[in-house]
Structure formats: structure tokens, C-alpha cells
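Summary for the steering committee. The consortium agreed at its last meeting that each partner would contribute one worked example illustrating the joint modelling workflow. Our contribution is presented below. We chose a case with several input lines so that the handling of multiple components could be demonstrated. No manual editing was applied between input and output; the record is shown as generated.
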Amino acid sequence: MRFRSVLLCLLAPFAALAEENPAPAARAGFNPDISLILAGGYAALSNDPANYRLPGFMLGSETAPGPRGLALGESELVMSSNVDDLFTGRFTAAVTPENTVAVEEAYVETLGLAPGATLRAGRFLSGIGYLNSQHPHVWDFADAPLPYRALLANRYGDDGVQLRWVAPADLFVEFGGEWFRGENFPAGGAGNNGQGAASAFVHVGGDVGAEHAWRAGLSALRSAPVGRLSGAIDTAPDAFTGESRVLIVDLVWKWAANGNPKDRHVKFQAEAMRRVEDGVFTADVNGANGAPVADAFSSTQCGSYAQAVWQFVPRWRVGARYDTVRTRELAAGANAALFDTQGHTPRRASLMFDYARSEFSRLRLQVTHDRSQPDAGGEVLVQYIMSLGAHGAHAF
Amino acid sequence: MNNHRPVSPWFKTLAASVLAASSLLAFAPAHADLRAFACEPEWKALLDDLGDGEVETYAATTAQQDPHHVEARPGLMAKMRRADLVVCTGAGLESGWLPMVLRQSGNARVQPGGAGYFEAASVVTLLDVPVRVDRAQGDVHPEGNPHLHLDPRNIAPIARAVSARLAQLDPPHAKRYAARQADFDRRWQAALTRWTQQAAPLRGMAVVWHHRNGVYLARWLGLKEVGVLEPKPGLPPSAGHLSTLLADLQRTPARAVLRAAYEDGRPDAWLAERAKIPALVLPYTVGGDGAKDLFALFDVTLTRLLEVAR
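What follows is the complete predicted structure of the assembly.
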């Protein structure tokens, strides 16, 4: 008896080690992690979204405001898991209210390729800017700000590879480079033998005390669109072939009382964007309304937005956003009439108010004074966003 | 026609500055034998004790922060990038931010499954493992209640496992880590005996929790939970729920309302005033209410509780 208890005491530390399970307990029961985002709402729009235009801009697909009245938003199905000790994968399918399914993201990524380096391959949202890589369900406002809508057709995602490297420094410094197929706006037509776009970005960030955190970024995207469609895409599209270069500067600053964002926090973000395009623009490329008109085209167009969101008590937030786009220079020859800015600078001002019952649900009211077009309009959006299933970790 | 377009000069400039900056940073000197990233202050305190000066430690959260809800900040990624060992609670406590920080840091040494990643929950038997996992029950953790460090009897096996990891990652100092762990264990067992004696009057004391983060402490001390301010885990106390709780307290009185420093004290104050019992802030972790290390954490916790038990 005495011998046995001595033996047990000696073996106890080893028993504890043997029980130790190196696999994270958090994964138990979820392989892969599956989550489903449900969204929908109501829109009261004074201007008919079917006639939406931004004077001076050729818009990509799905850039107009959503339909009036009650409508379902995009339902997103996300699956992610580690593949093995070297790879992790993520898949996001978006089911649109029009009953089409799109593979939004489907990529594999390395887990520690070389110190600090991560390689990603597949289809994904580009790391340029701040908002670009965020899915709509984590946006603080119901729609994308004007520079994203006008210059990137809401956001740029494509098939490609991405390499990121985090520097071994006390300050967060990340460099990234991407090489894309170039299928989607502002690229198009998978030019340059299916290597139609490339990007580079730098992110710098850190903490200031326990309550403040920030991140700043500089990104560039260059693409060679071939027959990129814009305008009335379904009926009489226009096409652009040439070169498109986008430069983005972004800044995010967050404050949380005692560093505890669950309680009270403020988030401020601003981005400025410039797009320069050079090539040939062909109006009505399919000749739906007569003969196509092709002429040289060059433009320099800019946009920016700034927004602030304040969680004043747990679960309740208010926010304000101002966004604008501007045409600096534009020469379109025979197609000049299509790009007439009418002396107008598109801009909007929005107020947002939302409530999150838990971190899995959000109800939002957004009111926008919309001066996208010379005749000002008003928008009232009511939105719900709910997530079912695995608890996903959100990016900063 | 676009195949041979020249790359624009500003794109070249950006690429060149990226390369120049990265070459500068790549040669930045690195010191310290071992860098440890602790998700919570209690594990930083443990590493500080067990590391015996050989381990540079960093705590991702403070006692004022709810460890469920910090953000995957760039500052955390920078720390994670250079870490050799990550020590976290696990059991889903950090699932809202840690996976993102781990993945984006690109640090292969600390990925889950490897020697550089340790979860305290892996060596402790968890309480409150739900029979039914349904979010209608609030933010329940399928793995069990993650606030496991508040039972000091859990600390000793965790210390053994963490020390073994230090030895595995830094073999030249293995003997020192083992000796330090033996010393820690001796001091901890002595403290445990002392605390158990001191805490005798607390057995059976009825309390109300703000969040169910005191279940391990309650089990150890034999406290009786007669109510929780949060109607469901993770949901802030509502007026309706507080009134029900107040009515319950008229029938089954409690001695105190207890919360951690990071929790909103207003509902506690409301209830405490009406139920005519004190609202206490327990340190919850190292750094809260003057608890400077793990020993002080339990010293202060017991002092606070004993003040109301009398």
C-alpha cells in the first residue's frame, strides 16, 4: 500500500504530461469550422436604383444600390480548417438573392512557410487597402463607400497567389505582394496570358498604451484589363482595354476604454484612393444600340472616405461616414459625352445606428443623404446580419 | 496588346522601398533566449516565475480586459511573430482573436499542435461542459468553462507542463527550469495549505456572480452560487433579469455580488444596493486589484471574500 502511493506520487507528473493533448481543445467537434451568414433588410430609396449613375465614372457590375423594399442580402457559407500541419484552407460561397452561387473565396494558405512568411493560393480578396479584404458582414455600414464602389466595383478579388511577410520587429510591419489572373474589375479579361494584375502593399501598425491601436497601409494595384465591361452590362455594355493603376492609402485607429472593446470603443478609419487609366474605350461594344464607338481614353480619378463608429454602451453603436469621388482629368475623345461629370462631385453623408444582441447578431439602421448624382436623394436602410455556427475570429 | 506595357515608375518605387525596408528589418538584432507570448496575465506571471530570468514574457491582455473580446491587433501580431512559446487558456476563451493572430503572424514555431503552443485547458478537467450546445443558451463554450485558473489546485499541473515545454524549447537551461518548477511547486503547495485553512469560513457562503467566471473558485472554496447577473453567458444583465434576481435574493439571500475588474460594475451596484449586500471586485487575474503575482492573486481574493464573510 505504502509502495503503491509512493509510486503514484512519482508517476503523477508523467501522468499529467501524458494527459496533455497538444491539439487545441477549441477545435473539438468542429472539423472543418462551418459558419453561415444570413443577411437581409429593407431599403427606402428616393432615387430609383435602376437609373443609378456616378457622373464621370464607368461602373462595374453590381455597384448600384440594392433594390427598393424588402430584400434578402447575400447569404455566405464559410468553411475553414487546417489541412495538415503545413496548410490551412478557407472556402466562402455567396448565394445571391437572385439565386446564383458564386465562389467568393477558395484558397489554401501555408502555416509558417519561412519565418513570418505566408503564401496563399486560390481565389481571394486582395489585401490592398483596409476595407477591400473584409466581407460585407463585418462592414460598419450597410454598403461600400463611394471610392470602393466607383474605382474597384466594391472590392477587388481574383484568382491568384499572395505572399505576405511580417518583419521580426516590435512594430507590426507587413509586406505583401500579389499576382492575379486579372478577371475582375478593375482588371478584366484575364489579360497578359492570364496574369493580368499585380499588387503590392505595406501595413504598419501597433499599440499606443493599452487603449489605442492603429494600422496604416499603402497599396498599389496595377492591371491590364482586356475588354473590361462596364455601364449597362446586361443590355448594352461598354468595354475598356488598356492599363489601370490604383494607389490606396489607409489608416485605422481604434480606442477602447481600458483596452476592453466589449464595453466602449471608438473606431476611426479613412482611405484615399487614386486610379489612373489609359487605353481604348469602346462604347456599346456589342452594338446593341447601333455601332460601337471606340476611341482613346485616359483618366485620373480619385476618391476618399472617412468614418467613425462609437460604441457608447455595450452592444449599441452609432457611426458617421462621409465619402466622395472626383474626376481629376479625363479624355475620352468621341465618347466624352458618356463621361460628362455635369460639373458635379459625387458625395454622400451617412449616419448609422446598430445593436448587437450578441457577437453573432446585428441589427442596423442607416440613413444616407446621397449626392452621388446631381439630383440629391435620400436612403433609409434597415439591415440584419446574423452568423450561425463556428465562432470566426475577425481581423483588426 | 497589353503584354509589353512598361511597369509604371511609381510601382517600381514602391517595390524598391519595400525591398529596402525589408532588408533593413531582416538584420535587426534579436535577443533573449526564449520569448513567450501569454494570452492572459496569469500565464505571464507563471512564465515569469518558471522562466527564472531566461524568458522574455508578454501578456496579450490585462486584468482590465475581457479575454473573450480583445481584437486581433497589429501589436499582438508583431509580438506573436517573434514568440517561441504561446501559453493560453484554450477551451474557446481566445477563439475570437487568437486564431487570427496566430495565422497572420506567419510564425511556424507557435502553431497549434507544435511544441511552441500550449493550452492550459489541455491538462485540467473542465467544469460546466454543456450537455447541449445551442447559442440560444448564450455564448457557451462546447469544451467547458474556460476560467480554470481560479482554482489554485489547477495551477500546479499547468506549471509542470509549462516548465516541461520551456525545457523542451531551450534544452541548455532544462536543469534550471526543472529546479525552478520544483521550487515553485513547493511554494505553491505551502500556499495552498495556508489558503485552504484561511478559507474555511467561506464554505457554504452564498454569492451572486456577474459572469460565470468564478465556478472554479466556487468549487475550490465551496461557495454557493445563488444567481448570475448575466441572463445567459456573454449577454449583459437586463433590467428584467435583475428584478427577478432581486426577488430571488429576498428568499435566498447572498452575502455578496462578485465581479472581475473588466466587467461593467453598474448592474452589480444596482443589485447590491437593493439587496443590501456588498458588491465586490475580485482581482480575477494578476494585475487586478493590486495582485502582483499568482500568489497575491489568491491572497487578495481570499482577503476580499473574508471581509464580507465576517
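The longest strand of chain A covers residues 236-256. Chain A has one domain: 46-70+121-130+140-389.
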